[in-house]
């Protein structure tokens, strides 16, 4: 049976991800206590189900600590993938404010100390509670993602879940913050910037004039060569460590020109070394607005 466990920080989009998996033909269960996961899996397997998606988060309380052991037990009998959704505290506070929903770790209204735990404190407490789960699977930082972007990224995850290792290149802009899902971050801000050329400013790193400009810069070529060399040297070790996903983030100031071009170039160069995905956070999120 293929099993996808969705976990992470409350408010980071687990419901959206679960809906995507339901549309993909998975039997979906939300807020399942970890202790029932083995029993549910056995029950569905006997009934002939081949795909299961389960959302488990801080609502499971102290039993969440048993999830790593349960995942290890399942991996011996089933294909298990873990999707960890994360978001910045600022983004989460805004989402909870807009929806007017309570955080699951907030004190109940009947508690004598009701009101003394802030939303920010509840979020940080949850981060500590689920921190160990980030080691088990692929992270997606939803801080700046719209719902349709998240749905597309979850579909990519589903399509590549059976691959031995997926190498993800993600471009981003530092002015909108570091991606929380990155395993490695490379800073391209010291490279020549097409933004200062009025002809290139409205374009992106996906456009040929920008690519031609950057390809003609020796520093850019050296930057790409160095990252490629590092990854080629260490990919075998990451595979030996049973890593399913490796996310390499390339950042420039706006995430519009240099980082986009470099992510594309690295994806092309390393396409034969692993299953490669390339994402451009700012272009995808802003839908054409630099």
UniProtKB/TrEMBL annotation:
Pfam families reported in the protein's UniProt record: PapZ_C, RapZ-like_N
Source superkingdom: Bacteria
Domain RapZ-like N-terminal: start-end pairs: 1-159
Keyword hit for Nucleotide-binding: yes
Domain RapZ C-terminal: 165-284
Record GO terms (molecular function): ATP binding; GTP binding
Alphabetical UniProt keywords: ATP-binding, GTP-binding, Nucleotide-binding
InterPro entries: P-loop_NTPase, RapZ-like, RapZ-like_N, RapZ_C
NCBIfam families membership: PRK05416.1 (NF003828)
Protein name per UniProt: ATP-binding protein containing P-loop
